[in-house]
Structures are given as C-alpha cells and as structure tokens.
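Issue 218. Parser rejects a valid record. Input:
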Amino acid sequence: MIKGIHNSLVERKRSGKKSFAVLIDPDKVNNSNMEQLIDLSVSAKVDYFLVGGSLVISNYLDECLQLIKRSCNIPTVLFPGSPSQVSKYADALLYLSLISGRNPELLIGQHVVSAPYVKQSGLEIMPTGYMVVDGGAPTTVSYISNASPLPADKNEIAMCTAMAGEMLGMKLIYMDAGSGAKRAIPESMIEKVAQSIDVPLIIGGGIVEPEKAYLNCKAGADVIVVGNAIEKNASLIKEMAAAVHSVPVNVG
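Output the parser choked on:
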C-alpha cells in the first residue's frame, strides 16, 4: 500500500535532504494563474504539490491536477479537507487522521465512509497523523474540525501526540498552524517532535518568510509546506525553495 512517494519521503529523510511543497487550494486558482505557478515551481525545483483545502467548493480539483500532469513531472499529493476531495488524477493522498483533536469523525468516522472510494481510486495512500497547532488566529481547519488546536507553548503535548500517532501506525506526521495563521509553529516544538519520531515530519501554516522555512528545517522538519503566502506573492516560491534546499545535509 505504501509505495513511490512515501518511499521518496523516507529516503530523503534518511539522506538528510529537505523538501519543499507548494500547497494549492483549487478554490483560489484557475488555468491562467496555475500556469504561472507551475512554471515558477519547475524553475525553483519544487519537490511536491499538495492539492486541497479545508473547504473546496469549486469543481476545479480534477482539472487542476490534470493541468499539473500535462505541464510538469512534480508529484501531486492530495491534502483533503473532506472525503469528497479524492481524485484519480493525483499521485498520492494524505489519509489524514486528526490526532491533535478529540473529534471522532476526523479520527476515524469520515475514513470509514470514504474507505471504499479511496481504496478504488488507485492512489498511493499515506496514513498521516495530522496535528493542528494554535497559530494565534481562528482558522478554517479549526472551525471545520470542531476541535481545539494544540497550545503552541506545550511542546511535551505535541511530542507525545506525534509519538502516539507513529506508534498507532501513521507513516507521516503533519503539524499545521493553519492557513492564515498569525504565527508559525515554534522551532522548539518542531525540534522536540522531530527528536521523538522516526517518520517524516511535515510542517505548514504561517510560514511567510524563507528564513522561517530554513529554521524549521534546521529544527527537524523534513518537508515545508507553503500555500497562503504564495497565493499572495507567487514569486516567493523561488526564495522558499532555495531556503529549504540550502539546509546542510546532516545524516543521523
């Protein structure tokens, strides 16, 4: 069940290489600005596209993914906010379980409903422990999930939550301050979590400057995800990718 993209994430982690992913919300793009986004991403050597959002209301998901496929070889990974955000045109899907909250629907309920469709999709399925961290502002993901985020100053809670997710069989841990967060996840929390798990660690939310992306990687992030800042300024892609890829390789 776990194959290509997961293997690449594990291998990059093992070799100490950091990855940069551009998050695309299908509600906020069209063919015209997608072409610019793809060109910039190819030029910057972006490693992955994450596609999805907390609330996708347009019908652009399939078309968006097909456009990426026609235009470049950057792998596409679905980042679904609901069971309806599944498309056969992607390469893989983050099968998210909200382990930071206590809403049973997002721990297992929606997965039961979506399982047959997800199974038939042919996508590479990557079980992912999803942890929402307080970014200083109410976010769509917090509202939709009806679950409180992890306090940003409770590193031990984040560490234990990530450890539990890994021991329950999650193949990735994704820590997210949410779209539009006023502050990104502290490096001290990232470091604490990274030192406590062996699976790849993805960090997103509130990252608006290349320096922060770099510091997050130094703290132990394996993948940096940026969406909101790029929506406002697409030229940030080059700087963000350069910052992530400039982190010295430090194996073991």
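Fixed in the parser; the record now loads. The chain has ten helices and eight strands.
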